């Protein structure tokens, strides 16, 4: 510290006229040079530095403004997407409910249709059985009738004369015709 104060004191003892000297005190000369450079920089660089800082400030403000606009648009698009998602979810739920309802309705229709088909098949079966029973009864009747007729004819042929035989045949043909009309 003594050297710094000595250099300022030494500056005060310079001779006033005509001599030129070289100051070899490094600390004293550096301070002077540094203060001159800082002064020149402040005087001339003040405008340039303020312009650079203003430009940088404008770029930062513009970037922030653009970011805010982009964020606003992104929030808006997000809200639209959420609204679309809610709508699609509601439609999906509706389709799901309608699909389940339709499946249940189709299932009930299929069950009802199957029951109706089974009832019809049961009715057809019963009708077929009844028809076959009637047909079998009719066949048995016809055979019994034919056998009885053949037996009666055999008995009549052996016991009757020709005239009695013709009358009996005519009576039987009349009975047979009446029976045939009843069965038709």
TrEMBL record:
It is a single-pass membrane protein. It is found in: Membrane; Plastid, Chloroplast thylakoid membrane. Keywords: ATP synthesis, CF(0), Chloroplast, Coiled coil, Hydrogen ion transport, Ion transport, Membrane, Plastid, Thylakoid, Transmembrane, Transmembrane helix, Transport. The keyword Coiled coil applies. InterPro entries: ATP_synth_b/b'su_bac/chlpt. Pfam families: ATP-synt_B. Residues 64-98 form a coiled coil. GO terms for cellular component: chloroplast thylakoid membrane; proton-transporting ATP synthase complex. GO terms for molecular function: proton-transporting ATP synthase activity, rotational mechanism. The chain crosses the membrane at residues 26-49. F-type ATPases have 2 components, F(1) - the catalytic core - and F(0) - the membrane proton channel. F(1) has five subunits: alpha(3), beta(3), gamma(1), delta(1), epsilon(1). F(0) has four main subunits: a(1), b(1), b'(1) and c(10-14). The alpha and beta chains form an alternating ring which encloses part of the gamma chain. F(1) is attached to F(0) by a central stalk formed by the gamma and epsilon chains, while a peripheral stalk is formed by the delta, b and b' chains. Belongs to the ATPase B chain family. In plastids the F-type ATPase is also known as CF(1)CF(0). F(1)F(0) ATP synthase produces ATP from ADP in the presence of a proton or sodium gradient. F-type ATPases consist of two structural domains, F(1) containing the extramembraneous catalytic core and F(0) containing the membrane proton channel, linked together by a central stalk and a peripheral stalk. During catalysis, ATP synthesis in the catalytic domain of F(1) is coupled via a rotary mechanism of the central stalk subunits to proton translocation. This is ATP synthase subunit b, chloroplastic. It comes from Antigonon leptopus (Mexican creeper). The gene is atpF.
